[in-house]
Amino acid sequence: MLFFNSTISPEEKFMARAVELAMRGRNRTAPNPTVGAVMVHDGQIVAEGYHRFCGGLHAERECIADAKSRNVDMSKCTMFVTLEPCNHHGKTPPCTEGILEAGIPHIVVGTRDPNPKAAGGIEYLESKGVKVDQGVLEEQCKDLISDFLCWQFKDRAYSILKLACTIDGKIAGATGAQEAVSCPESFQDVQRLRSMVGAVIVGGNTLREDNPSLNCRLDPLPEGFSQPKAVVVTNHLPQNHDELTLTTARAEETIFWTSKRQADSKTATELKNKGIEVVALPCCEKGLIFENGFKMLRREHGILRTLCEGGGKLACSMTEQGLVDEFVMYQAPRILGNALGRPNFAGSGNTLISEATDLRVSRVEQSGRDLKIVFKPEGQ
Question: Is 235 exposed, middle or buried (0-12, 13-18, 19+ CB in 10 A)?
Fold first, then answer.
């Protein structure tokens, strides 16, 4: 993570390291939250831990185990943890009990736990004489659990929108020809994104122009990995479905979101006969309404996260419908300079900057020669 504030405090540096550790577990912790922790003594990090996978040790207990292996005297340490320690029995014992058993006198918490079952850890520790501070890098720590919040309070999959563009916001040239915009390192990072989602979503134009496979191409693939489903959003089901990768090689892993009229068509029947799922979504004057699709992915397929890699129109529609929880943009240090180049977002009726959708920057990282910027909706 890149920090542009040279006056960042030591406490923020320690919590930033806990955030960095937490991100390592994001791929395997679902449906648990992503959490990181560090142990500090005399201004130095002496032990670290993070929640590695669902059912495994929580970050606090991982950190305590690391401290024990290093013979650290935890009675003289402060633990920094991104999320309030849990105070209930789940697949593992309460982290609050582990902290008390270790004799840690001081805990710094990034953000409170929004889950009522797990909340109350701060008050419990304080009642036992542990000093607890909270709110260090709170926004970054909340961002770590934004997917968890979606699963807890919304009945749908968490939605990530991937963007790869030039400095002037172009995802392709004027002809729409398929060309790499970002660098090889960013391509690999996108594959890591694909490895942590249950579905990759594109629009009909992307299907027709690129004939994508939408599979994860990491080598090697994670142990026990299943390829994400492919979701195509279109008002026009493909007539040439015998020529497309998704509708031949990946038929049973492919879903079409379309209008009721298209879902009742002969083409839809042909697709269904191949094992492809065709889902009719409600429509409005601007096109398909996607929310039911995201709810269906969660309810019927158990999908917790999705990655949209569609074109500008799909990106714009999803944003306007409030169905993007995380924007991941790979900005290449390149300038096309052609007004006819295809933009990141297209199709909005907005004409003034005052009508624009406001986002906030969550993280900034280097990705090879590109800049990777993660945005969140304003107010989230």
Answer: middle
The dihedrals phi and psi of 268, each to the nearest 5 degrees, come to -60, -40
Please tell me the pTM assigned to this model: 0.92
> Quick one: tokens of 186?
């960013």
Read off the pLDDT of residues 148-197 as tens digits, 9 standing for 90 and up: 999 988 989 999 999 999 999 999 999 888 889 999 999 999 999 999 99
Angle, CA of 154, 289 and 356, to the nearest 5° = 85
Task: Give tens-digit pLDDT for 35-51.
Answer: 999 999 999 999 999 99
Residue 10, helix vs strand vs coil: helix
φ, ψ of residue 320 in degrees (nearest 5): -65, -30
Q: Which of 199, 226, 202 is nearest to 295 (CA)?
A: 199
Cα–Cα distance for residue pair 40/80, rounded to 1 Å: 8
> Annotated catalytic sites, by residue?
60
Task: Give the C-alpha separation, 315 to 337, whole Å.
Answer: 21
d(CA 9, CA 6): 9
What Rg, from alpha-carbon coordinates, does the chain have?
A: 23
pLDDT (tens digit per residue) in 90-113: 777 899 999 999 999 999 999 999
Gap between the Cα atoms of 8 and 16, Å rounded: 10
